[in-house]
Amino acid sequence: MPRRAATRPVAAPSWPRRALFAISGVLVLAAAWELYKALGPVEGVRWGQTVVLPRTSDLAMPHLWAMFQRYGQPVDSSAGSPTVLVAVARASLISLGIAACGWAAGVVLGALLALLMVSWRLAERALLPYVILSQTVPLIALAPLVVTWGSQIHAGDFVWKQWMSVAAIAGYLAFFPISVGLLRGLRSAPETQLELFRSFAAGWWRTLWHLRLPASVSYLLPALRIAAAAAVVGAIVAEVSTGMQGGIGRTILAYGIASGGDPAKPWDAIIGAVVIGLVVAGAVSLIGLGLQRFRRAEETS
Questions:
Q1: What confidence category does residue 45 fall into, taking pLDDT thresholds of 50, 70 and 90?
Q2: Which of 66, 121, 124, 137 has the highest CB neighbour count under 10 A?
Q3: Which chain regions cross the lipid bilayer (predicted)?
């Protein structure tokens, strides 16, 4: 009987190739922006009251080089005004820190819920529907509640600050993909291997650490990426909803309101938000690099 040829795991793209793909994607988007601005209709295209294609005028869609030139100019005409680059960088760092706090809190909460649900079927049946239902609540309705509840928290010298409300909302969005993704990953361990661990009288913690968690890595990494993106979006939107000052969300709003004949200014703030997303994606990729050795080898037939 002929022996079946051994198969090797499919190699993941190398880091230089991934970086090249990312840079190429940014360049393609930049080229598409300038190409549409050069060829698209100045007043856009409407179908009734619906905008089908955006306008390409300099007021609505400035050139990329105009945006980058604006970075080197002061925010306003007041004395000592920082450049737009400095102001956007400061606001981006504030939002990045808040989003990171929310993401970390969401990861911890989502992981605890997943561990509870995987160890107790009754908890899964009771909690999972509410976990899914929680994501249907709009942020515009949630933000005032979080601010109100937070202002009522008093513990000694501890004072609930506005950025904590923003971080709580970011964590609220981040915990869902972690809980669902990790739960699916923890349940992905093969039944034969679970039976093997039971035959060796391995306890719940040993089975979790040596079997279930390694099996869940392939599900956990995408969940971490989605949670990170949700935390960034949640932090930016929550800054606007809660009225918090200093972050990139309020900066985008302020620059958009006061743009007037300065269309490049709000786009500079939007680019700052995009950079936050890229930084977060890169950070999660580094986490994935550290967890790579825990992945189970996947064979192709």
A1: confident
A2: 124
A3: 93-118, 130-151, 163-183, 219-238, 269-291
In whole angstroms, give the CA distance from residue 229 to residue 233: 6
Question: Token match 């605890």: residue?
Answer: 112
Residue 139 has a pLDDT of 77
Q: What pLDDT, in 10s, does the model give residues 157-207?
A: 777 888 888 999 999 999 999 999 999 988 888 888 888 888 887 787 888
- The per-residue DSSP string of 128-164 comes to HHHHHHHTTS-HHHHHHHHHHHHHT-EETTEE--HHH
DSSP 294: G
Contact 135, 153 (CB under 8 A): no
Q: Which residue has the tokens 């490049």?
A: 264
Residue 50 φ/ψ, nearest 5 degrees: -95, 130
Tell me the residue type at 203.
G
- Cα separation of 226 and 173, whole Å? 10
Under CATH, which architecture does the 84-294 domain have?
Orthogonal Bundle (1.10)
Task: Name the DSSP class of 51.
Answer: E
Q: Give pLDDT tens digits for 258-299.
A: 766 788 888 999 999 999 988 998 888 888 777 776 665 443
pLDDT at 92: 93
Buried b (16+ CB within 10 A) or exposed e, 88-127: bbbbbbbbbebbbbbbbbbbebbbebbbebbeeeeebeeb
